[in-house]
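Re: beginner question about structure tokens

> Can someone show what the tokenized structure looks like for a real chain? I only ever see the sequence side.

Sure, here's an example I had lying around. Input first:
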Amino acid sequence: MSDYPTLDQMGVKSVENVVKYSLRQEGDTDVLKIYYKRPKGSFLSRSKKFTFVRPNRVVSAYSSTSERDNPNKLSPMLLDALRELKKLLSETEEQNPVDPKEKFLADLDHLERVMNAKINEIRQQIQDLEK
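And the corresponding structure tokens:
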């Protein structure tokens, strides 16, 4: 049996390669993005995105209670996945503590590569317009 049954059910097989995750809301859905550590030249994706629709609860107009369910409630599966990711990353951090300075420098290098790639893409689009 897996230590991370929800992640396993979602198709996250290489939990040992998970390095971080992010969560954002888009309308009535939550988007969980899991990032992996991959070797250079790997054909495997560096991230995987999962969407979870927020559960809508119908409250009867004839209900005698005045309580309403919270419309911003997260999906139970998403909550389980977040718990497992938090546990997984805390275990990983205990085994391999990260120097904050190294992490900031790595994040800065990544941001610089992404920005340069985007700038080059826009310049290429401008050149294509001139043709």
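Each token stands for a local structural state, so reading them left to right follows the chain. Residues 5-97 form one domain.
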